[in-house]
Amino acid sequence: MNKLDDADWLYTISSKRKLIDFNFAEIWRYRDLLFLFVKRDVVTVYKQTILGPLWYLIQPLFTALTFTLIFNKVANIETGTVPPFLFNLAGISIWGYFNTCLKSTSDTFKSNAAIFGKVYFPRIIVPLSIIISNLMKFGIQLLIFIAFYIYYYFSGADIHINSSLVFFPIIVILMGLLGLGIGMLISSMVTKYRDLKFLVGFGVQLLMYVSAVMYPLALMREKLPKIAWVVEYNPLAYIIETARYMLLGTGTFSWFGIIYTVVVTLVVLMLGIVVFNRTEKTFIDTV
Amino acid sequence: MSIILKASNISKQYRLGLVGTGTISHDLNRWWAGIRGKEDPYLNVGSVNDRSTKADSDYVWALQDINFEVQQGEVLGIIGKNGAGKSTLLKILSRVTIPTSGEIKTKGRIASLLEVGTGFHPELTGRENIYLNGAILGMSKAEIQAKEEEIIAFSGCERYVDTPVKRYSSGMRVRLAFAVAAFLEPDILVIDEVLAVGDAEFQKKAIGKMQDISKREGRTVLFVSHNMAAVKNLCTRALLLENGKIGFEGLVEKCIDKYLSVEDNNSFNFRDFNSREGNGGLRITDLNIFCNNQDEVSFNELKSGYNYLFKFTVENFSNQIKKIALGMSIFSIKGQLLTASGSDYFMDKIVVEPKNKVVVTLAIPSLPLTGGSYFLNLSCKSDLNGLEDFIKDCLILNVESLISTKKNVTQFPSEMIQINHDWYL
User: Fold this and answer.
1) How would you label B228-256 residue by residue, b for 16+ Cβ within 10 Å and e otherwise?
2) Domain ranges in chain B?
3) What is this structure's pTM?
4) Which residues of A touch B97 (CB under 8 A)?
């Protein structure tokens, strides 16, 4: 019998867990799986529908239209010089990206229990693929936004891009990572305590109202100064406000807001990864 | 030969019953113990995993102190009764879950082939699913590309390869899934009961492929099955699990013998036997065997060529009148179906009044089995609810074979059907 050297072992399956067990090399080895999951998500969602990918556009367009009628025409929320429809469309598209990222990643363990119960692959591939495939949907929505943007621009609306637009991708990535972090936290806890599933449903709905989606941040400060802090401490509000500033030239841009958002996102993401890592090892026993 | 996998002191504890509000208090206790640097307070409790006895604790050890080593190129069979811990062991080996204590060290990459076909997306075509499934099992795109044609040819689904998998028959799905997995190239392949599916032709192909994998390519295989024939054919060594512990480890033949002797028929209790299938509205609650119309005999003392009456007691536990048919089949220990019959071939559906029972007799004149052990599978179907009761691979008949021919009394080769016959000039 050979003498066994500890260095010979490729890996060990044991009950001991490290706090952060994030194996980049392994994830890289499974990059083809990530790509195939993204492809599966994009290709199969609207199979056997007549309108197909048009649904990506119909959802934000109709929501923006409804918001414009209710919040701007009925409730008279001021959007400054920017056409309300365009204002809402920008907010909804970006919020929509966060919304879908959070909702689909928070279901990771439960909806993949069958496959997770059979084979091993780095579990984080699944939420990552969700973030990426949703990014492509967001891209399509951005195209329709650009089309309306050009239309309004040539009809003489007072909108202008500014140089900060080069940082727009960073804003989008922040939004995705924040959705990923919160989603991973929830997905890990929901495996044992299903209560959270109900919380997510209406929690996200409520979150939208304090994320400056259908109103400018300044308006909140002006009308409800006492509870404006709820919105001001919400990193999502900064992301949406900043995105609108970049795209439409409306609203405020604050370095404090950006740095605050980056810090919160990184903390939430780290926490999400740690909890996710702990859960992935044994969740199949409790799910 | 070198050791490729080594399991030391593997244990796995499960919590019985429901996950509910009680869970949170146990979780808090654990967390508190963890903070003080103490051991998990629930690790000391827990009873031995015997499915049929009532538990005295909320925790159960599905596996307890499992130690074994696997040599490079070896095909290790893992056998055991339902609930003995086979699947738990496989889950730990394939890294789906971690053990409660102990560790497994491996020198090679492990890929598992558990219930093939998980991960297939019904909307994608066969070809797209080959790529997806291959990637899930750990292959890279380039690897799959290189083997794509071979995989399709092996599956025998060429015609349908560009059709969405949702249009496939279940057999085709299994073929395709097995084909993908068969072309995996892990150092250690873990296989769980895949041979139970597919038609005879494909099963043959699958066994052949697995022999190829182990013998020609020299890869290590861990094989879990109830199919003793397949275990005998494929494995070089076997491991018997009994109630979460290792009951025997070593030669395949000996291991199978040990496994069969574990199943103690004399204590088989129809009424309390729990690991049966069917909806349970109706149950076979007793089976008495009579020899030559008079003496009652046990399952272990049947003799070739004698006349037997099998008297089934069937009880209706529901509140409905049920019309039923009974079925019986005899399998060799190797898993080969030898014969089968149903009461509905011979008589009308049997009416069983609610909360009542009937006794149905099956007569087998001149028992046509040679010496050895056989599985007797029993089923009960009703018009109303389909499968009511099904006892599968649990009842063992032991037959003694001394057949008197016109020349002398002789013993025939064991475990086969003995037809009524004669030789003359």
Assistant:
1) bbbbbebbebbbbbbbbbbbbbeebeebb
2) 69-109+186-262, 282-410
3) 0.72
4) 281-282, 284-285
Q: Which residues of B touch A47 (CB under 8 A)?
A: 123
Q: Domain B69-109+186-262 maps to which CATH number in 3.40.630.30, 3.40.50.300, 3.40.47.10, 3.30.720.10?
A: 3.40.50.300
Q: Across B317-412, where does the E strand assignment appear?
A: 322-332, 337-342, 350-352, 357-364, 372-382, 386-400, 403-404, 409-410
Establish how many alpha carbons lie within 13 A of residue B365's alpha carbon, considering only the half-sphere containing its beta carbon: 1
Nearest to A13 among B98, B108, B114 (CB): B98
Evaluated on CA atoms A138, A144, A148, A149, the torsion sign reads positive
Report whether A131 contacts A68 (CB < 8 A). no
Q: How do the domains of chain A map onto residue ranges?
A: 20-286
A246 contacts A171 by C-beta, under 8 angstroms = yes
What are the residues whose beta carbons fall under 8 Å from the beta carbon of A152, sequence distance 6 or more?
A: A83, A86, A159
- Residue A151 CB neighbour total at 10 angstroms: 12
Is the CB of residue B375 less than 8 Å from the CB of residue B396?
yes
CATH of B282-410, one of 1.10.10.410, 2.40.40.20, 1.25.40.10, 2.70.50.60: 2.70.50.60
Helix, strand, or coil here: B106? strand
Cross-chain residue pair A12–B123, CB shorter than 8 Å: no
Q: Where does residue B361 rank: exposed (0-12), middle (13-18), buried (19+ CB within 10 A)?
A: exposed
What is the DSSP secondary structure assignment for residue B10, as one 8-state letter? E
Q: By C-alpha distance, which of A184, A200, A193 is closest to A280?
A: A184
Q: How far is CA B66 from CA A220, B80, B189, B252, in A?
A: 63, 14, 20, 19
Q: Tell me the β-bridge partners of B112.
A: B190
Among the partner residues A4, A44, A114, nearest to B121 by beta-carbon distance:
A44
Average pLDDT for B411-417: 77
Asked if B92 and A13 come within 8 Å (Cβ–Cβ), the reply is yes
Q: Who contacts A130 (Cβ-Cβ below 8 Å, separation ≥6)?
A: A41, A101, A104, A105, A108, A183
For the beta sheet containing B75-80, the strands, ordered from the edge strand earlier in sequence to the opposite edge, are: B110-114, B188-192, B220-224, B75-80, B237-242, B245-250
pLDDT tens readout for residues B148-195: 999 999 888 888 889 988 888 877 888 888 888 878 778 888 887 655
Interface predicted TM-score (ipTM): 0.81
Who contacts A233 (Cβ-Cβ below 8 Å, separation ≥6)?
Answer: none
